[in-house]
Amino acid sequence: MEQPRFDAPRPGMAMTHELGARPWQTPARLTSTDEVVQDYLLRMQDDSFVKQLVGVLESGVPVTTLANTIQLAGVMEGRHSIDTGMLVIPVLMEMMMLIGDKAGIKYNTGMDRDEGEETKDAMISAVLEDLEKDLDKDASGIASEEEEQSTETENEPMGLMARRAG
Question: Is 18 helix (H, G, I), strand (E, B) or coil?
């Protein structure tokens, strides 16, 4: 039988760090977009990065997702701020697409709208139209039934001690 772990973190413990103790809470090391671009370009020229990137692109992960993930990791490590990271995303995407083109692989940019999404949107709008028609029919049917029931209930005695007719 496994012993219970008493050295596990308590709930809410992650919220108790002092301000500035985390890398993203300190001033960024790279402050201009030019510095951030140069940093990423140097990192992307590494052969191990290129091999990993080609593998990920071949698996179908969109370039937009990769670029956003890479810049967010840079923010979390304290290399740059979130605003410079967002400004650098197009450069990261272009570099990754260039690496994919040189490797001769087909990749998903993440910017094209899939035909499946258009079909899905058309199906959703058709179902919504059918639902609205059904609701209109039901609403008119319910209104006429309520009128019939209201005339019947007016004639019947109500209350706990009322006698039932029939």
Answer: coil
Residue 130: half-sphere exposure toward Cβ, Cα within 13 Å: 6
pLDDT tens-place string over residues 25-69? 788 899 999 999 999 999 999 999 999 999 999 998 999 999 999
Q: What DSSP assignment string belongs to 65-97?
A: HHHHHHHHHHHHTTSS-HHHHHHHHHHHHHHHH
Q: 72: Cβ–Cβ under 8 A, 6 or more apart, which residues?
A: 85
Rounded Cα distance between 67 and 91, Å, is 9
Give whole-number Cα distances, 85 to 43, 50, 82, 91, 141, in Å: 15, 21, 5, 10, 58
- Phi-psi category of residue 111: left, alpha or beta, with phi > 0 → left and psi -120 to 50 → alpha: alpha
Give the start-to-end residue ranges of the domains of the chain. Answer: 19-103, 113-154
Contact predicate 56/109, CB 8 Å: no
Query: Could you tell me the end-to-end alpha-carbon distance of the chain, in angstroms, rounded to an integer?
Result: 71
